[in-house]
Structure formats: C-alpha cells, structure tokens
Amino acid sequence: MFHRRSLKLAALYLGIIMFISLFFSFTVYRLATVELDRGIRGPMPAFDNRYGDELPQQARNFLRQDAVRRSEDAKEHVRNQLIIINIAILVGAGFLSYYLAARTLRPIEEAHEAQSRFTGDASHELRTPIAAMRSEIEVALMDPKLKLSEAKKLLRSNLEELDKLTALSEGLLKLSRNEHGSLELKPTSVDKTIKEAIDRISSKADSKHINIDYKTPVNMNVLADADSLTELLVIILDNAIKYSPENSSIEVAAGLQRKRALISVTDHGVGILETDAQHIFDRFYRADSARSKTQAGGYGIGLSIAKQIADAHNGNINVTSTPGEGSTFTVNLPAVS
Ligand code: ADP
Question: What is the chain's mean pLDDT, rounded?
Fold first, then answer.
C-alpha cells in the first residue's frame, strides 16, 4: 500500500520535473534553430565587403549550401545533446522523486498506522468489559432462583466495570484530543504541586497502608500548567501505589540539576523488566497484561498521558527499575530561575 502510494506520488513529481525540463529543452531548441536559420538565410555582408562582385554566383551558392549543411549539423547536435540531458534528468529525477515521495509519505503513513492501531486497541479495550458485563447479566437473568444478595453482588461488580470504563473513555478522550498540546505555562511551585498530588492520592495509599514520604520540600518553580502537572504526578503516584505491596513506602523527592527541575517517585513494588521499560509509555502497553489487568486493573494509558503532559512542558519522564525491588520514575522539567 505504502509502496504503491509512493510510486504514484513519485510519478507525479517526475511528471512535473519532466514537463518543466521538456518545456525548457524545446524552448532552447527553438531559439537555437531560429538563430541558426537567421544566420544562413540573410545576406552575406562579410563576403560582399571583402570580395564585392568578384565571387561568382556558383561559389556563393556553394558557400550557402555549406552553411546550410553545417547549420543542420549544429541543429542535430543540439537536439542530441538535449535528448541526452533529458534522459539523464529522467533517470536522476526518477530516483530522486521516489526518495522524496517516500520521505513525504513516511510520517503520514506512520500517523495513519498509529491512528488505526489506536482505534483498534481502544475498541478492543472497550469491548472486553462490556462483553463480560453482558454475559454476567445474561447468566443472572436466566437464573429463576436468583437471590437479592446475588443480584446486588452482580450490580456492584458491574458498577466497578462501569467505573473503569468511564476512566478509560476519559483517558482515551484526553489522549486523542491531545489537550495538553496548547497549555499556558506559568511559574508554578513544585512543592505545592507535589503536595496537591499526594493529597489527591492519599486515600488510595491509606487503603493499602502505604506511606508516601515527602520530607524535604523544595523552594523551586517550574514553567508549567499546575493542573496538568498535578495530573502527571497523580498518574505516577497512582501506579506506584498500584504496583506496590501493602505496608510499603513510596518516596517523593525534588531537586535542581543544570536549570532543570527533577521530581522523582520511588516505590518498592514489583518493578519493571528492562524490555518492558522501553514500552510502558506507549498507549495500551502493560508490562504483564494478566497481572496488570486482574490485580491492578489498568488499561495501559496512564503513562502515555503522563508522557504527553511532560512533552507539552518541554520535559520528559524516564524510569529506572529493578524487577522485584521497585522503580523510580523521574520527571524532568525546565526550572524557572
Ligand atoms: P496501567 O493503567 O496499566 O497502570 P500505565 O500506562 O499507567 O497503565 O502503565 C503501563 C504499565 O507500566 C503498567 O501496566 C505496568 O505494567 C507498568 N508500570 C507502571 N508504573 C509501574 C510501577 N510503579 N511499578 C511497576 N510497573 C509499573
């Protein structure tokens, strides 16, 4: 598909180049022939001045015929040269056109592929819990002796799925709208943002008896949109809690390094394999889908939203991790001096 589109575009480029080249070649040839014809058709003042009437008519005719022959040779020579030049342009421009067409189409093709992968993944993620809910409900409806307590249990389980679906559709909307693309960045206190994020996530941490340790507040500002930066930290803290055992701890720290603010979140949870670490910022990537889905219940879009937010702040996120021991996510943003 990509190859065919590249060929079509290359043919178009080549057509345009050859049209221009042939147009100029034709013009050059016309001008050259007009000039050559003018030279032999007109009077022969050089001969007349030098020999007057001395030169017999026969000699004059011979000289004129010779001039005509040489002019025809010259025309043929110009024609051959132009043909060779055009063949060279055809071959050279053919390769160049294909190269340029492939280069032009590559990013469009990649965006197209990413878009269809995204749509496919998203519809798969939406379909799976809906199918699960449907079959649960159907089984319950077919049971004539269904007890109220069982019905309530089913409704609670459905409600949980619906909460997850709501979170997923909100995340998908955020990702597809790329609403962090045009943020208004203002000097924002790192300390306040960290505290706000910890505050938002504290009930979840409490439910797993996880202690979030943020002891050394920093007096540092970054160029950011406060709400988005808080959202980014909440995503990382939420993951740290999800992938940590009960009664563990999470450390949050911030510091300045070469005019960049570094905010790190360290957990002592399951950790991430090196092969997975390269992909966890991709949409829908889960290091271990069974584990992530059944126990932690994620859809693999949190970190891609976090990355989108970091990008919008001219920053980045990276991770270092030891499987079985824990992970450290570090956000790097431009500091305000
Ligand atoms: P999810 O909703 O599945 O957590 P994310 O995009 O937030 O999606 O994370 C992608 C994957 O990265 C997760 O499924 C998990 O496997 C891995 N991951 C993210 N944070 C951590 C962490 N703190 N510890 C271990 N694994 C993590």
Answer: 88
Relative orientation angle of helices 57-142 and 148-177, to the nearest 10 degrees: 160
Q: pLDDT at position 289, please?
A: 46
Question: Quick check: 262 pLDDT over 70?
Answer: yes
pLDDT of residue 299: 78
Q: How distant, in Å, are the alpha carbons of 49, 50, 58, 66, 67 from that of 53?
A: 9, 9, 12, 20, 20
The closest alpha carbon to 23, from 84, 81, 86, 95, belongs to 86
54 by DSSP, 3-state: which? Answer: coil
Q: Which atom of ligand 1 is nearest to the CA of 288?
A: 16
Q: Which residue's C-alpha comes closest to atom 21 of ligand 1?
A: 239
Gyration radius from the chain CA atoms: 38
What confidence tens digit (pLDDT) does each residue in 26-51 have?
A: 999 999 999 888 877 666 666 666 66
Three-state SS for 220? coil
- Ligand 1-lining residues (CB < 6 angstroms): 239-240, 242-243, 267, 269-272, 280, 285-287, 292, 298-304, 327
